[in-house]
Design goal:
Layout: E1 9-13, H1 18-28, E2 34-39, H2 42-51, E3 59-63, H3 69-75, E4 81-84, H4 91-96, H5 98-119, E5 123-129, H6 138-152, E6 163-169, E7 171-173, H7 179-188, E8 193-195, E9 201-206, H8 207-220, E10 225-229, E11 233-235, H9 236-247, E12 260-262, E13 285-286, E14 290-293, H10 297-306, E15 310-311, H11 329-340
Parallel strand pairs: 1-2, 1-4, 2-3, 4-5, 5-6, 6-10, 7-9, 8-12
Antiparallel strand pairs: 9-11, 10-14, 13-14, 13-15
Helix pairs in contact: 1-8, 3-5, 5-6, 7-9, 9-11
Length: about 350
Amino acid sequence: MRNIFKGKTILVTGGTGSIGSEIVRQLLRMKPKSIRVFARHEDRHHQLMQELAKHADTVRFVVGDIRDKERLMLAMEGVDIVFHAAALKHVPLCEYNPFEAVKTNIVGTQNVIEAARAEGVSHVIGISTDKATEPEGVLGVSKLMAEKLFLSTYFYKGNTKTKFTCVRFGNVLGSRGSILSLIKRQIAQNQKVTVTDPKMTRFLMTIPQAVSLLLDTAAKGKGQEIFVLKMPSVRLGDLIEEAIGYFAPLYGKKASEVRTAIVGKRDGEKLHEKLLAEHERGLALETKDLYILTPHRRVSALYRKIYKANPLRAGDKSFSSEYAPKLSRKALRALVSRAAKSYL
């Protein structure tokens, strides 16, 4: 990966969150001039400030909300690169608070785009989710709209030099509020481990994997594209079993002693996720490791050469978690172990 971050001033929205804070940690290894951590949670600012105390000359902590465009404009003065990680991310919360999801995920993203253009930022990298693919719930719909805003900058860019790139993730194992934290708590409190549907399938990655993809994308992105990492998937029932096998001994239990309860899928959830929607197949390109989406056939033809990519293979269904290669139990066990360490 080219180190395009050395000597640069970088802003991370949602910079105190699970993904945002890991972006900050990995960027610090690349010797940027300054990193501005932009988030609204005072307590999380304080926690990260304590953790990164030895980097006080490089990291700046900026309290603010992406809903506040004026605050964003001030925070972006002199910034070279923006990582846009701020969002409402939990399916049930977005489902029952749709107006708030719109204000943060859609209007907030528009504010980031407009502020970056106005301040002459070189490159903005946004974070999306596979839930934006053929969405059934508010979270997915709001993130799909955020993606559309990023891609639509192609049509009204004018003379601005700002590049906009988006990255679509699967489920990030180990992030705040993810399934591992719930299972750990339920086992610790001698409760049944709740399972929505063991037949569900999901694409999984750890926080460091997700951020490595993000930084690599920033280095290679030309603008006006969505990068999607090709990922293996897992069955929820298998993931639950491995998580119970990891956490039960920590509380003096055998895995066989931990009971489970199937509660059914939540509002806004799908049985299987997709990395690409059916209607995206026509403009989708693929390399060995990535799918690449663009807003226009002209861009698609150009990027096919630049990225040495090919059109999507006819009949390929591996972009669905139902059909994608499944992680082996050994690989899943190792993934759970790495991610679970953040809860110990």
